[in-house]
Design brief:
The chain is mainly beta. 0% of the residues lie in helices and 47% in strands. The chain starts with a strand and ends with a strand.
Length: 129
């Protein structure tokens, strides 16, 4: 059974940077899994902000973070990363990593929460102005 655990959240000033990590456990080879980052602010729906294919060759970014966030993965270390630069107050949210045993290539539609069946507990990111 795959389990996910996020880390790296915290408080950061607007314009600063923050990096999140997600450790995958309970499975010997995560290369079969499409991985993604979602976020959810109070009173809002969960939003898919980044997704990365099994091999790391293809990635997706929502318009709200494109050019500022970067998603990467290390299948050898069984980890997923989200590097956040030039953060804005509207980036404040609980950030979740998610996994699904399927391929999410270049032609995959934007990620939806219902696409993923394994979730971490979340890590809070707060951006102060």
């Amino acid at each position: 059974q795959v389990q996910l655990m996020e880390s790296g959240g915290g408080s950061v000033q607007a314009g600063g940077s923050l990096s999140l990590s997600c450790t995958v456990s309970g499975y010997t080879d995560i290369i079969n899994y499409c991985l993604a980052w979602f976020r959810q602010a109070p009173g809002q729906e969960r939003e898919g902000v980044a997704r990365i294919s099994r091999s790391g060759s293809w990635s997706y970014y929502s318009d709200s973070v494109k050019g500022r966030f970067a998603v990467s993965r290390s299948n050898g270390k069984k980890e997923l990363y989200l590097t956040m630069k030039n953060v804005k107050p509207e980036d404040t949210a609980m950030y979740y990593c998610a996994a699904k045993n399927y391929q999410c290539g270049a032609d995959a539609p934007p990620p939806r929460p219902s696409d993923f069946d394994v979730w971490g507990q979340g890590t809070q990111v707060t951006v102060t102005s």
